[in-house]
Each structure stands twice: as structure tokens, then as C-alpha cells.
Design goal:
The chain is an alpha/beta fold and about 350 residues long. About 45% of the residues lie in helices and about 20% in strands. The strands form 3 sheets. A 7-stranded mixed β-sheet has the order 1-2-9-6-5-3-4, with helices on both faces. Strands 7-8 form a two-stranded antiparallel ribbon. A two-stranded antiparallel sheet has the order 10-11. Bound molecules: nicotinamide-adenine-dinucleotide and zinc ion (ZN).
């Protein structure tokens, strides 16, 4: 088992390894010694696979367990699902020391975290992440929330978990499509801050084994650990997203516009990959990123079966970015990678972003 401590204001551990679900009762008992009741929140895809294991492990440690299962999918990341969780906890007589365990991907983690952040003005959450995207990104860092009809993640709260459990064995049941989506975030870390990860992913691609990563347990665990360490390092410096944490938005400013314009029919990971591809080309054209590096980056995204292009025009991208919630004042933070393994935050007006994308 690998343990990475996130040095947030209230530090917590991320535990990574194969077979951790069976031990989750004991692990949660260690992290949340005062808790008596646990609400396990999960979706209709994940619950049939893993609920029984998690529930019996928790009950074995003497926890009183209840469940809230919602239909899988981003459309369910809304206030009525969260209200269902609140009601369940109220019915079960939860107190401030009881906890939510979010068992699933990023949708489950975001909602379970938000329900915990708001119930009784805040109880603890344990993230038990089962998707690649959630393991490398969503479950670490304490951002929780729900979508509104007007946009994604518009309502939420910071709520650092008490513990994060990442059983890499769960990745075996993830569809290839969802695994690939998670790889977009993995590749993002390689570009923005982790040159070693870039070399690991590139050499796999060159040897023709990019496609077998999902079934290569050892390599996969290593990669998940690297990404969690990277994210933990950022969170330790900027828990509330006022500075360096923004580099995690690489590819996201335009990716989010593409995602919204597709009416969410395109997945987040696919849109981030497209967004990265667009920024790579703009940096190359502006002369700040060497052609060779730009080619290597684009090839890496493609090697892991993700797209690098989209039909969005520079005008649509700049206009869409203007409405992004991450906007501060009149300028947009655009994250640039001009050297593989390091990122910079560049503040641009909408007009400057348009010029940059058109160059
Ligand atoms: N809080 C954050 O910092 C943060 C960061 C990135 C993304 N997010 C959010 O995360 C969400 C995307 O995460 P996601 O891709 O995990 O979405 P998701 O939770 O919908 O999971 C994707 C799909 O995989 C299924 N699934 C998950 N684990 C599985 C497993 N082990 N076996 C079989 N099926 C499994 C789910 O049921 C779902 O159908 C978005 O809502 C996004 O906004 C949050
Ligand atoms: Zn993302």
C-alpha cells in the first residue's frame, strides 16, 4: 500500500493499492475514530460491483451503515441527489462526528463531498475513488459540488476529505472509454509539472504498450501515485485555488467551452485533450513552444487514444472562455506549457486570447 499525505490545513492521507476495498473499514476507523454511522453514497454502476465489499468491511469494524444510490451519470450531479443524501442522514440521526463515504467516480465524490460539507454545517467525508479520473484528480484536493442547468460545478464548497482510498483493482472493471478519459488528466500532469511522467508515458507509447496500461497493475499504480503526489504538492501550496493550483486547469479553459457546446455529450477527458491540443498549437505558432516539443506532446495525447483537434473557432473559444466561472475580474487565466514539465499562468483579456488562438 502506498501512502501520500496531503499537507492541507488539516492534513490527510491518500492510500493507493490493489485490494484496499476489503480493508476500508479498518482504514476508515483509524482516520475517523469518533464516527459511528456511515452513509455510503454510490451510483448504479459502481454499487452492484463494490457496495457489498465496502459495507461488510465497515460493518466488521462496528460502523452502522446506510446507503444512498443514485442513477449513474453527470446529469444526476444535481441538488435533488444531494437532498436525497441529506434526508437519508437526517432519517438515520447522523451527528457531527458521523461520516459520508463516497464510493465511485468524480460525480459520486463531488456530490458525496458536497452533502458532507453542508450537512449539519459540515461533517467529514472519506473518498473511495473507483475511476481513473477520480483517483488522479477529483478525489484529492477538496473541491466538491454540483451542476446547475446554467453550467457545470456552479455550486460547491471546499471540503478536504478525512481520508482517500484508491483501490487500483477497481480500474479493471472501468470501461476502456472511461479509462481513456482519465488518461487526459494523467497526461496533463506530465505536461504541466512532471517530466518524468512524460518520459514514462512516452516510452510506453513508443514501445506500443500504451493500450495495455489498464491491465498493467504495477505500471498503473506507479502512475496513479505520481499523479497524486503531483496534485498533493500543488494543494499544499494553494489549497483554495488562488494561485498555482490554477495550472491544473491546463487545457480546461477551452476544454470546458467545447464540453458545454457539445451539451455535455462529449466527456470531460475528451474535451480536456482537445483543449490541450489547441493550446499546444497556439503556443507553437506564437513561437514560445518548440515545434519538436509540440509534436511530442500532440503525439502523446494521440497515443493514448485521445483527440487533439476540434471544430471550435478561435472566436467561439474566446467568447466561451469569457463566461467561464474561473474568470477573475476582466481577465482569463490561460495556462501555457512552453517547456514540457512546467506551466505558467498567463492573464489575458478576451481580445488577447482571441489573438493568441488566431496567431
Ligand atoms: N472535485 C474535483 O477536483 C474534480 C476534478 C475533476 C473532475 N471532477 C468531476 O468529476 C466528474 C467526472 O469524474 P468521472 O469521470 O469519474 O465520472 P463518473 O463518476 O460519472 O464516472 C464515470 C463512469 O464510470 C463508472 N465507474 C466509476 N468507477 C467504475 C468502476 N471501477 N468500474 C466500472 N464503472 C465505474 C461510473 O458509474 C460512471 O458511469 C465530473 O463531474 C467532474 O466535474 C471533479
Ligand atoms: Zn479536469
Amino acid at each position: 500500500m502506498n501512502k501520500i499525505t496531503v499537507e492541507a490545513a488539516q492534513p490527510y492521507d491518500v492510500l493507493i493499492g490493489d485490494g484496499l476495498l476489503e480493508q476500508c473499514g479498518r482504514l476508515i476507523r483509524q482516520a475517523c475514530s469518533a464516527a459511528r454511522k456511515v452513509l455510503i453514497v454510490s451510483d448504479t454502476n459502481v454499487a452492484p460491483l463494490y457496495m457489498d465489499t465496502v459495507k461488510s468491511s465497515l460493518e466488521g469494524e462496528g460502523f452502522i451503515v446506510s446507503e444512498y444510490i443514485f442513477p449513474a451519470g453527470e446529469e444526476e450531479k444535481n441538488i435533488s441527489s444531494v437532498a436525497g443524501m441529506w434526508s437519508e442522514m437526517a432519517r438515520e440521526g447522523f451527528t457531527r462526528t458521523d461520516i459520508v463515504a463516497a464510493l465511485g467516480g468524480g460525480v459520486t465524490g463531488d456530490m458525496g463531498g458536497f452533502a458532507a460539507a453542508t450537512f449539519l454545517r459540515g461533517i467529514r467525508v472519506v473518498q473511495i475513488s473507483t475511476s481513473l479520473l477520480s483517483m488522479v484528480d477529483a478525489s484529492v484536493g477538496g473541491k466538491t459540488g454540483i451542476d446547475l442547468p446554467q453550467g457545470k460545478n456552479l455550486v460547491g464548497a471546499f471540503c478536504q476529505p478525512a481520508l482517500v482510498i484508491e483501490d487500483t483493482g477497481c480500474l479493471r472493471s472501468l470501461s476502456t472509454e472511461h479509462f481513456t478519459e482519465g488518461m487526459a488528466e494523467v497526461i496533463k500532469y506530465a505536461f504541466i509539472m512532471d517530466g518524468t511522467l512524460f518520459r514514462i508515458l512516452s516510452s510506453r507509447a513508443e514501445s506500443g504498450s500504451a493500450g495495455s496500461l489498464q491491465t498493467d497493475a504495477e505500471a498503473l499504480t506507479d502512475i496513479v501515485c505520481r499523479c497524486v503526489r503531483d496534485k498533493a504538492m500543488i494543494i499544499a501550496q494553494d489549497e483554495h485555488d488562488n494561485g498555482i493550483r490554477q495550472i491544473l486547469n491546463y487545457g480546461h479553459t477551452i476544454g470546458h467551452v467545447i464540453e458545454r457546446d457539445s451539451n455535455y455529450s462529449l466527456s470531460h477527458g475528451v474535451c480536456v485533450a482537445k483543449g490541450m491540443g489547441i493550446i499546444i498549437r497556439a503556443c507553437r505558432r506564437s513561437g514560445s513552444l518548440e515545434s519538436k516539443s509540440a509534436d511530442m506532446m500532440t503525439e502523446l495525447i494521440r497515443a493514448y487514444n485521445l483527440p487533439t483537434e476540434d471544430k471550435i473557432t478561435p472566436e467561439q473559444a474566446a467568447e466561451g472562455a469569457r463566461n467561464d466561472k474561473k474568470k477573475r475580474g476582466d481577465t482569463i487565466s490561460v495556462i501555457l506549457v512552453n517547456k514540457i514539465g512546467s506551466a505558467e499562468i498567463c492573464r489575458m483579456s478576451t481580445e488577447e486570447l482571441l489573438e493568441f488562438l488566431k496567431t
